[in-house]
Amino acid sequence: MFSLSVNDHVMIAHSLPDEFFGPAQALHGATLAVEATFTSDQLDEHSVVLDIGQALQMLDDALAPLQYANLDEHPDFAGRFSTSEAIAEHIGTSLSVSLADRPDIGISVHLRENPRAAVSYTVVNRP
User: Fold this and answer.
1) Which long-range contacts (CB under 8 A, 24 or more apart) does 111-116 make?
2) Between 20 and 30 A from 95 (CA), which of 30, 50, 58, 76?
3) What angle do the packed helices 84-98 and 52-63 form, to 10 degrees?
4) pLDDT 10s digits, 45-96
5) Cα angle at 14 between 20 and 126, to 5 degrees?
6) What is the mean pLDDT of the chain?
7) pLDDT digits over 115-125, tens only?
8) Farthest-apart Cα atoms in the chain, separation
9) SS3 115
10) How many angstroms separate the CA atoms of 81 and 24, rounded?
């Protein structure tokens, strides 16, 4: 199995309005470190999983609508909590759409909320 990982970060604002989330119920900002990993059983005709520049651009495109956004007002999070897990899923889904013509490439998103906590999401059902 081969893999290619690229990373960036996204700055968001959101609240998690439920007692379950303690102090995170209030509106707050977060800077999330994001790593996207693309996997394949075999390399393509150029001996790569995916072009690094293309992978970076896809991650940039996936993060752009979230950058400096208040996720409480973001239509893609209407009716659901914008937890780190949900944000990772959102990014993974966006990357999946960008790679709709390459179903052979696996996608996972690793999102670090702080130095002690991270979540991951692996795209299972590709469009």
Assistant:
1) 111/32, 111/33, 111/34, 111/35, 111/84, 111/87, 112/32, 112/33, 112/34, 112/35, 113/30, 113/32, 113/84
2) 30
3) 130
4) 999 999 999 999 999 999 999 999 999 999 999 999 999 999 999 999 999 9
5) 90
6) 96
7) 999 999 999 87
8) 52
9) coil
10) 11
pLDDT of 37 reads 98
The CA-atom distances, in angstroms, between 7 and each of 78, 81, 100 are 26, 24, 21
Q: Judge whether 30 and 76 are in contact, CB under 8 Å.
A: no
* Six-digit token string for 89: 């899923």
Radius of gyration (C-alpha) of the chain in whole angstroms: 15
The reported pTM is 0.94
Domains of the chain plus CATH, in order, are 2-122 (3.30.479.10)
**3-state SS record for 44-106:** CCCCCCCCHHHHHHHHHHHHCCCCCCEHHHCHHHCCCCCCHHHHHHHHHHHHHHHCCCCCCCE
Distance from C-alpha of 81 to C-alpha of 50, rounded to nearest angstrom: 32
